[in-house]
What we know:
Blueprint lengths: L28 H12 L8 E3 H18 L9 H13 L1 H7 L5 H8 L4 H13 L6 E8 L2 E11 L16 H17 L5 H16 L5 H4 L8 E3 H7 L5 H8 L8 E4 L2 H12 L3 H16 L5 H16 L7 H25 L2 H23 L6 H12 L2 E5 L17 H17 L21 E3 L4 E5 L14 H17 L21 H19 L13 H26 L12 H11 L3 E3 L1 H10 L5 H9 L3 H7 L19
Parallel strand pairs: 3-5, 6-8
Antiparallel strand pairs: 1-9, 2-3, 4-5, 7-8
Amino acid sequence: xxxxxxxxxxxxxxxxxxxxxxxxxxxxxxxxxxxxxxxxxxxxxxxxxxxxxxxxxxxxxxxxxxxxxxxxxxxxxxxxxxxxxxxxxxxxxxxxxxxxxxxxxxxxxxxxxxxxxxxxxxxxxxxxxxxxxxxxxxxxxxxxxxxxxxxxxxxxxxxxxxxxxxxxxxxxxxxxxxxxxxxxxxxxxxxxxxxxxxxxxxxxxxxxxxxxxxxxxxxxxxxxxxxxxxxxxxxxxxxxxxxxxxxxxxxxxxxxxxxxxxxxxxxxxxxxxxxxxxxxxxxxxxxxxxxxxxxxxxxxxxxxxxxxxxxxxxxxxxxxxxxxxxxxxxxxxxxxxxxxxxxxxxxxxxxxxxxxxxxxxxxxxxxxxxxxxxxxxxxxxxxxxxxxxxxxxxxxxxxxxxxxxxxxxxxxxxxxxxxxxxxxxxxxxxxxxxxxxxxxxxxxxxxxxxxxxxxxxxxxxxxxxxxxxxxxxxxxxxxxxxxxxxxxxxxxxxxxxxxxxxxxxxxxxxxxxxxxxxxxxxxxxxxxxxxxxxxxxxxxxxxxxxxxxxxxxxxxxxxxxxxxxxxxxxxxxxxxxxxxxxxxxxxxxxxxxxxxxxxxxxxxxxxxxxxxxxxxxxxxxxxxxxxxxxxxxxxxxxxxxxxxxxxxxxxxxxxxxx
Length: 658
């Protein structure tokens, strides 16, 4: 990181060593700022991509490893022993290899023996109670129409490939053929005979299941996916699925589904139709396959490697499976994340960072208030409601105020598969206990050691875990321009989700409640449609044969556009009318945009680019940088962008929403 030659200035926070000076910022800001790194960096062999986020992820992972390996093993009475025991149970590779398929052999036998609908529903439920995936997912969170109360949501699942499009589009035909071979191979390693026949049945059945899935764009719609039903209505919708038997087998209390939100009703109706025309052989193959595939990462090395060869290499282009300790760390973080996080925060997160972040967040909120108040396209009535929502935003910074209690969870140092089942039951009980109770506003949905951030519309809260509050996003010693261009734009992005195409449907209390006038909503959607059209034209450099889906990514693109716009205004507020210093030949406003560009530094394997373009609500990082700045007049002023420059966009084509 470069520092100023003027000792009176803080360090710039700019990574000049990553620059590519032969590329002008006016033509390609992303490669001007990151091109040197992109040209020379090699993606680690155990990853599908690399970049700024991964740099922090790797640092957090190493810090967490030290924490975990310093915890003792023992009877499991203390949370420290639970951490140590779970890690030890995964690291016991020799024992895991000696056990082979035996930890799940009885379940395999049960799946292979299915001959009736009752057999299927019973096995499906029993397997889910042990943590295996099913035909649909369930989770518990606040009711979108009454954000004070928790309710269960259920939604579509049951596929082996990332998305329903993989089962119908010609471009994914090679992936489907690879899946057939993969199923046959994995079943063979597990000792299941006639793998090719099983594979053919699985693919045919999943193709039928996928035909009832909603596509990615429709599945984003907060209104369309809110369908509250009583248990009687759910049973009537999906007459053919034996809910009573499944509830009993999965140990799901009846009250959990007494009233629930069904995210894709037509999916459940379609699955019920398939079960009414029950094909025992096909459903037996499907359940056997998902049982083995879902367990493979925790079984013998040959099973884990074969599973990775498809899901890691074929789907994402990653050559090499992660080291065992990395996978063990991920398991512990996913199971005892807040217990680890409590130690992580004590060791790695200074209180000064939290104090500085509060100041940044307050400036971003004030910038949004000024911006909304001055919007020419929005009526005063809708502005008042937008400002009311903004005034109710709840920032959460660094770590939760109270930590989760893991005392009821039993973890053994020598029983990995048993641990997984106990963790699944512990988490299931924890979630089910929430149903019908008041929402805990202090709960976090990410651990402090997670390199990410989120906006929760039903809580109207923005959350910034400790691990993201580091360079290049945030640096206590750096100039404000770098921090506002980095974490400031991220803060603005997350606040912006409260006003994106879906988040804007929620009011300040977190309820789905239309606070817009029809004319204001039409003006908003006109601008969102312009952004969709812009992104629909973009082709990632690593996979030029695919095109970004503007409708799928519009929420994140609105977040990026608002975040960068409002981050800039917040930076101006922080200056309190003063001119920012020139550091290393760069003005404050140039450093702001450079800092925003360097957080998107990324390199990705072509296979992973294709997978993400098909399934990810985020645009490729080069466009989160370049396409967004093309819309900001402030960028044109900072770098004197003119007609003919690569990033020039005619004023009438620029989109500004917030």
